[in-house]
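As described in the Methods, two query proteins were run sequentially through the folding procedure within a single session, without resetting any intermediate state between them. The first query and its resulting structure tokens are shown here.
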Amino acid sequence: MTAYAPYSAAMRVGQGFNSYTQSICIDNAVVFEAPKYAKPAAAATAEEAAAAGGPPRQVVDYAAGFVEKLSDVVEATNLSPSASIKSGSIGNSGKGGGGFIDCDKAFAPLMLRGGGFKEAHLNYLVHTKVLMHPPSQQHQETLRFQKLKGMPNTSEAFNAVFGDCFISGFLEGGEFTALVSLRFWDDGEGSMAGKEGRALAKLALSPRSGDEEVTAARKALTEKAEVSVNVSWAGGGNIKDEGQWDIDSILSIAARFPEMVSRCPQRIAAVLTKYTTLRSFLEQMPGIVPLDYDNTVLYSGDLLDAYMEYKHMVRQLNQMLADPSAYVESTFVSREEAAELKPIRLLPSELDDAKTYCRTQMLRIVKEVDNIAKNPALAMDEEHIPPFMSAELFRAMLPVTVLFLRRKMKRACEPSAQQLTLTRRYMFLAPKS
């Protein structure tokens, strides 16, 4: 099975690679030997085909839609959840910076940091991926596994040095990703943050250009919501003129991106091939079983969401410590319920302890990523208990605001009386009226 990883300038053909952590291992794990024979006629045919020009062959993948969790963004863009946890940002591979979505930026209010995935009412992801297909080669190079002398002949040593696969090539093309975050202004009723706002956003984000209804919806959206965008692209050259990004420019460039990539493609991904596909590996390393991470995606996505949720709670606790007078104890729960759930009181000592606890849970999640990297079977073990507390359960113990309660209730479609009772049970503290 062939997999792919985001391209990094440090990658080289033949390097060992860990597909779970997306980290580079030993160099020249596999060497590429030229074929013993070649047909000049075939090479001439390829040159003639290149000189003839014509439209380039492309494979275009376009996706757009609302996303609820950051793990949805990672899944849609074919990124690694574990790599996002370890690096503290989403989509930073090969970009030489802080990434497409920084963890801190993902939790900041829109009006403060220009991001705010967690604070937004709606998040809309636009993703376009273009792959350029070169002419097929009739004669492939011979791949030969290169054993490391002196290395212990154990699976543990092999996986630590060589990883679970190797880089067998690169894909050229382009990739465009845009995340539009919307936070509606409070209208007193919360209708815009519910179905009404979602319907307006869906119409405004429609790719139809020149439609009067869509144009009116986009104008209404800018008046009723704060719009923030995160944009990242590779390939295509300078795809946009000077000026700020907005909904019109994002959708327009996403539609024209394949044409831009045809003029200026670049490497966007590394092709990963498993060692077990090589005859030379099976001959030289009998009994060695490389790690298999194929079934770790779901659990890793849950780890990413929990990590991000705890990161968000740390920021909220800092806000509570900075201005504790803005909150008072609520009378929504009885003493019996409060004793059972043990809500965190609005005291500096308890809030600071809660912040320390959140950071401890984040470290445990990072440690769990390391454990899965060494033993992928943990992700599929039904009896394995995650070594950290559920982020949703811990959030139920925190002081909450009315805005938090509204957001939870708006995302529920016509909540029942039982759901409302459960929400009220978790509302221990509320702002002063």
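Immediately afterward, the second query was submitted; its sequence and tokens are:
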Amino acid sequence: MVTDVVVYLIARLVLVAVLTAAIYGVGSLVVADFPVVVALLFAIVIALPLGIWLFRPLRERATASIAVVDERRRKDREQLQARLRGDEPPAED
């Protein structure tokens, strides 16, 4: 689970870094003193929708692995609540 989320996170950060470098390079050609912060802000704004589109398989894999963990936690919580009530825990699937 963690690896899928980390891979997706790193891919998004690399996209922002590449876009920042590209915007900064083009901005430096146009204006002699182009601020890096402006390039970074533009890169973040552009990378938000672009990353969703480009990294869809990574996002779906990360979401699926998070759903598996959520389901396991839900079952564990149900079993704990049943034990605290003194009931028989629900059967494992």
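The chain is about 85% helix and 0% strand. We note this only descriptively and draw no conclusion about the first query from it.
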